[in-house]
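Section 5.1 Outputs to date
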Amino acid sequence: MSRSVTDGPEPQYEKVVSGYETFQHGETFECDWGGELPEFSLAYETWGTLNAARDNAILLHTGLSSSSHAHSQPNNTHDGWWESFIGAGKPIDTDRFFVVCSNLLGGCYGSTGPAATSPKTNEPYGTDFPILTVNDMVRAQLLLLDHLGIDRLHATVGSSLGGMQSLQLAATRPERAGRVVSISAATRSYPQAIAMRFVQRQAVMLDPDWKGGRYYGSSFPHRGQKVAREIGTTTYRSGPEWQERFGRERIGSGVPTLDEDFTIEGYLVHQGEKFCLQYDPNSYLYISKAMDLFDVTADAPDGRPMIDHIESPALVIGVTSDILFPSWQQREVADRIEANGTPTTYVEIDGHYGHDTFMIDLERVGEPLREHLEQG
């Protein structure tokens, strides 16, 4: 084919198996939906220096697929998933800020997830792992911050699922967030996004090799995971980008086949195969379900919607070509926060990289981020 499936900007994802630090929480952790973990670990990495006042920390939340490796560092010199955004003089300036990024609770890059060994059975949790919420993930991260001696963040920052976590933290623990950044997220998951993630989970669970989630030590559900990621990829980018990048070009010039035939199909196959080698299918199921359950407009214990408790100056960024979290959902986030009198900046990017814009567009995402973080 004349166009490579790897042409064009792509996020940096890596299967991270070392180079991170580990926070061990040795006490029982009760989850929102009633399950519990006897203990858990969070893999995390840091950049920059925590100042004497311990008030210059930024907690960077990850999306579904990302590890703690947001930026290169001596123990892992490979580029991180937000390499261009973090560093000396970058939008998240490590000459000024101390940056913390952890792999999610439920993840598979060093944190406790379904692939981890249960201390009760000495076997992988599999689908005995409890249902998780975004709030569970945030509560685990707050325990990590306690361990690091950080009471109040300069900012909580995240995109996609990370943006959900950022809003959750600022809403449920407003005293711990100095500023809040939410990029390409939402106040809650809407039916279209829930439907797309449901179909992805079905693709995994209908693979005979899934075995009810107990595939560890044998063949894993490669085919289902591959199809799930192919479906997901169709929601991460945009039609205009793919029209420009692939058009209707075919892989070969012979008789069409019922399988991989157009270049865009080759691109989806490439993304699916690559992801299968990096990510645990059960983590994919649990974390995507947590996204579906997210709703920061639900009532807090005091009867007010959680989002109405956000009191930190907020930056909200949306992208016009995002079909997974459309820009109207970002405007809703900004409007809800601003309605309570909280200073809010909304930025809408007219770009064609779709949902993945937050991973790619350094100038139009990075500059508003820099300005917001440098205030105060």
